[in-house]
Amino acid sequence: MQEVRLVDLSQSPHWPVELQKYYDIHSESIQRLNSIYGYEVMSIPPLHNLLLRTEASILLSLPSDQQHPVAQRDVLGRSLLHVALDLGLETIITNLLNLSDEPTSIIDHFGRSPLHIACCGASHKIIKLLLDKGADANMLDMDIRSPLFYAARQGNEAVITLLCRNGASINARDVSWQTPLFYAARGGHEAIVKLLLKNSANVDWKDLSGWTPLFCAAEGGHRAVAKLLLDNGARIDSKIGPDWTPLFFAIRGGHDAVVKLLLKNGAGVNSKTGSGWTPLLCAADRGHEAVVELLLENGADVNTKIGYGWTSLFYAVEGGHVSVIKLLLENGADVNSKAGCGLTPLQCAMERGHEAVVKLLLENGAGVNLKDRLDWTPLPYAITEDH
Questions:
Q1: Is the pLDDT of residue 299 over 90?
Q2: Ordered DSSP codes for 113-136
Q3: What angle do CA 49, 53, 58 make, to 5 degrees?
Q4: DSSP string of 355-372?
Q5: CA 218 to CA 262: how far, in whole Å?
Q6: How far apart are CA 292 and CA 285, in angstroms?
Q7: 87, 114, 302, 366 — which has fewest CB within 10 A?
Q8: Backbone φ and ψ of 36, nearest 5°
Q9: How confident is the model at residue 105 (pLDDT cuts 50, 70, 90)?
Q10: ANK repeats span which residues (predicted)?
């Protein structure tokens, strides 16, 4: 084994780029990388350094016994083959694979095999070569993910087809019990979702938090993916936590196209969470005008109150969402509704200092002398907050 020398990170411009390919969905992996990248000086094997410095031609000129891919590991535990795959150096990759049968089973400190890395962006040709050399399509990294998870996240249809032909488990579960279908749905990869479903992916599988792939599609605003999942039997009324359905996640992100799709497929427009939230309350709170309009058109109750007496109008007023307030008022929102403490929308607007909202409420009949339980009218609310 050659002597490992120290290399100053500042002199290795390709190091940050190469490191980014290891950034992962899970924050704990990013934290591990940050702690490693935080060192001022890092040990990098000489052959790895040649690749990082784009001096692959020098490596190719070395005798084959000095190019052995197993002999050296860097601080991330990667072999020369891992690094070559990271950088997309196909000639080097081919040479290394021809030198030994060992490299395909080598794992780094994250439990990733060369095939895992290849599925992050290598060509179909390289992935086929790895599989032909004996790479295990179901090898798991430290988060219990097979290469198929990586390919699903990247959205590479040809690679996924190749992995499936080589025995990749479609319904494998990672550490949080998510399957590759979750990763594809979250990324909005319609073709991948279709391919996985065609290969019997479980459309309604729940992870440890109760999420299904439909939640991922709804949260990301991926209408085409959500439609595919629904067409294949995904439950529209699945709930997580305090009874939140996919509709709430689509609303929270302001994804009106997904909201429209879910409503068309039977999502409850006046459904309630465990704490009393309705879709309209959520949309008004976020200030999503298009979503509010959709919900109202589909029969949302404009004056439903949450536990402490707030209606959708209160939430829109608090956020200063003028266009939403106008919509709510046009659809019958009670401008003088009172919360449990006697607070009115006008008092709320005065307290927040939303001048345009105050004007709109007054134009729509808000009572200027209505009092809360402390006998306060709207004016003291503005005075105490220096508005």
A1: yes
A2: -HHHHHTTT--HHHHHHHHHTT--
A3: 80
A4: HHHHHHHHHTT--TT---
A5: 9
A6: 10
A7: 87
A8: -75, -45
A9: confident
A10: 110-142, 143-175, 176-208, 209-241, 242-274, 275-307, 308-340, 341-373
